[in-house]
Amino acid sequence: MSTATSNAQKKGGFLAGTANYLDERVGVAGILKEFGRKIFPDHWSFMLGEVALYSFLVLLLSGTFLTFWFQPSMVPVIYDGAYGPLKGAEMSIAYSSTLDISFEVRGGLLMRQVHHWSALLFVAAAGLHMLRVFFTGAFRKPREINWVVGFALFVLGMAGGFTGYSLPDDLLSGNGLRIIDGMIKGIPVIGAYTSSLLFGGEFPGESIVGRLYSLHIMLIPALILVFVAIHLFMVVIHKHTHYSGPGKRDDNVVGYPLMPVYVAKAGGFFFIVFGVIMAVAATFTINPVWSYGGYDPSPVSAGTQPDWYIGWLDGALRLAPTHLEFVIGGYTLSMNILLPMVVGIAFLVVVALYPFIEGWVTGDKREHHVLDRPRNAPTRTAIGVAGVVFYAVLWAGASTDLIATHFKMSLNHVLTTMQISLIVLPIVSYIITKRACLSLQRKDREIVLHGRESGRVVRLPHGEYIEVHEPMNEYEIYKLVDFKAYQPTLARPNAKGVITVRARIRARLSRFFFEDRVEPVTQAELEAAHDHKELH
Amino acid sequence: MNKRKINNARRSPFAAILVIAAGLLVAGGGYAGATAAVAHSTSGSYTQEQVDLGKKLFLSNCASCHGKNAEGTNYGPSLIGVGAASVDFQVGTGRMPGQASGPQLMKKPVQFKQDQIDALAAYVSSLAPGPSVPDEKYLATNGNTTRGGELFRINCAMCHNAVGAGGALTEGKFAPNLKGVEAKHIYEAMVTGPQNMPVFNDANLTPTDKKDIISYLKYIEANPSAGGEELGGLGPVAEGLFLWLFVLGGIVGITIWLGAKSN
Description:
The structure holds 2 protein chains of 2 kinds.
Chain A: H1 3-6, H2 13-26, H3 28-36, E1 39-40, H4 48-67, E2 76-78, E3 90-92, H5 93-103, H6 108-135, H7 144-165, H8 171-186, H9 191-199, H10 208-238, E4 256-257, H11 258-283, H12 289-292, H13 308-319, E5 325-328, E6 331-334, H14 335-362, H15 378-397, H16 400-406, H17 411-450, E7 452-459, E8 465-470, H18 474-481, H19 501-514, H20 523-535
Antiparallel strand pairs in A: 1-4, 2-3, 5-6, 7-8
Helix pairs in contact in A: 4-6, 4-11, 5-6, 6-7, 6-11, 7-10, 7-14, 8-9, 13-14, 13-15, 15-17
Chain B: H1 2-11, H2 14-38, H3 48-61, H4 63-66, H5 83-92, H6 114-127, H7 145-155, H8 157-160, E1 167-168, E2 174-175, H9 183-192, H10 207-222, H11 236-262
Antiparallel strand pairs in B: 1-2
C-alpha cells in the first residue's frame, strides 16, 4: 500500500520504513532529535498551563460540532420545537437553533455543555497558570515577552468567552450585550458612533449575532492558535524553568526528556482533563438557555451576571460610585461607566507590563531559569497578593445580590462594604503578605543556622535545659539559601553629572522593593554557626 | 352667527365650572368603574359562623398589632379592605402572625389550620370588600406555558429571577424563591402585592394570564433541567464558583497526585 513499506529498503518493519521515508523527505530525524530530547522538569504547578491548552483543544472539537447546527441569524421565527414552554414564541433563528442543539440534535446538549464548561476552565486554568508564573518569578529575563504573549492569550480567552456567551441570543446574553452597548456609548465623542457601527444601527439591531459569530469562530480562535504556537515555541527556545535544588542551576534544566516520558505523560493528562470536562458536562447544567427565553430588550432578570472571567468588570461597574455624571456643553460625561473602564484597563496594563517594571527596578540583565520561592521576593509576592485581592473584590462585586440574599444581608451594606474593601483590602493584604514573607525568610535563616526544632528537651549536667535542634542535611540547606536578595540602588548621576528624574524614580522604587530584606545565609555564617555549636 | 354663539357660551362665567365638573365626573366615574372591575369583591361566600370564629381568632392572635377592629396600629397596617386573598396568603404561608421584625417578614411553618385561616379570611373580608381567594379554575396548571413564561419574564423575573430562584431588593429585602410555593399563594401574591411586591390586578394581568404564569412556574418546577444538576438556577455565578472550586480544584488535585508520583 504505502510507498515506504513496498520499498526495497524495508528493514526494520513498517515503523522503521515509515520513519525512514519521512526522514528522507522532511528530515524528521533532526526535528525529533531536537524536540524529543527537550527536558522538562517535574512539578505539579508546571501542568496548569497544560490544562488551559487541553481545554482549548476540547473547545475546538466541541465548537466545531456546534457550528454544524448553530445558525447565527437574528431573523425572527416562530418556535415549533421540542421544548414546551417556548412553543409558539417568536424568537431569532440563532436562539431557536440553540434550542434545537439542546433538545433535538443527538448529543447536542452534551456538546454545548462541554463547550461552555471547557471555556470556563480554559480561562480559569490560564489565570491560575499566570499566577504560578508571577509568584515564582518565571517572567524574568529571558521570558518577559512570553509573559506578554500569555497575557494576550488570557485576554483573548475573555474575548472568545464573551463573544460565545452572546451568541444564543437569549435574555441573559442579550442583557450582557446591552451592558457592553452602554459601556461603549459611555465613551466620549466616539461612543455612539462605535456602538452604531458595531450593532449596525440602534441596539440590538439585526446583525450583532452574525458579527460576533464571525469573530468567535474565526478571528479569535485563529489568534489564540497563533499565540499558543508562539507561547510554546518560546518555551522550547527558553527551555523550561525549574525549582531550586542541588544541581539545578541557571544554565541547565533537570527533568525528563519529552520523548518518551513527557509525550506519554502529557498525552495521558490530556485525556484526564478531557474526561473531567465530559463528566462535569454530563452531570451539571450550564447556561440553561431555554429558561431565559428569547432576547427582548424590555425584561431584565434578577441574577443577570456574566460568566466568571467578565465578572470583575461587571463588579467594577456595580461598585462605581453613583452620581458621577458631568454635563459639559450639553454632553453627558458618565464617569460611573468611564471610571470602571479606566480602572479595568489600567489594571490589565499593569499586569502586562509588570516584568518590564520589575526588570527596570532591579536592573538585573542576567538570565533566570531557577524559580524564586515566593517568600524570597517579598515585595513582588506582596504586590501579587494585593493584585489578586483587588481583582477578587471586583469579582465578588459582580455577585453582590446573591451574597445579600444567601447570607441574609442588606444589598446596600454589601455594596458599601465592597467599595471600601476595594481600596482598603489590597493595602492591608500587601502589608500582611510582605511581613509574612520576611518572617518566613527569617525562619529559614534560623533553620539553616541552627537546625530544625526537634521538640526534644534535655537537661544538661549543670541543670540547664535546652531543646535539641536537628541539623539539616546539605540538600535541604541548598534550597533554603539558593536565592539572591537585591539591595536598593542609589540614584547616580549620568554622564553629564546630572541626577535625572528617571534615576530618582528608579531609586525610589528600588528602595520600595528592596529596603526590607533578609539576606541568604552565607558560607561564613554557616561555618560560624557550626563552630558555635561545637562549643556547646 | 352660530360660531359667535358658541364663543359667547365659552366666555360664560359658568363655563369653567361646567368643564371642571364634567371632567371630574368622567375621571371619577371612570376610575370607579375601573376599580370596580378590578376589585371583584365577594364577601358573601363565607358563613356567619366563620366570620364569628375568625373574629375570635383575630382578637387573640392578630389584634395586638393590627388593632381590635383591624384598623391598624403603629405596629401593623389596617386590614380593612385587604380582602380574603391577603389573609389566605399571609397566614397560609406562615408569614403571619409575624415573628421578629426585620426588613421583611419571613416564611415560616404555618401556625393555623386551613379552616382557621378561612375563618380569619372570612372575618377580614367581612370588614370591607377586597380581593378574594382565587377560583380553583385559575389554579389548574394546564394554561399556556409559552405565554406564561413570556409574562413571567416581563413582569416577575426582574425580582424573582428568570427561573424563579429569587433575587435581592434594597436594604435586606428580597424577592423569595418561587419553587414549592402553592399555586393559590402565587395567585394571591399577584392580586394583593404582599410586602414589597407590586399588585398585579386583573386589569394588568387577567386571571387567565395569572393562570398561564402559574402553569409555567409549575412546569419548570416539575421538569428539572435536561442538562443535569441545576446548581440552584442561579446562573453564571454558581457556575463560576463550581468551576473554580470543584472542576479546577479537582484538576489541580490530579496534577499534585501526578507530580507526587514521580518523586
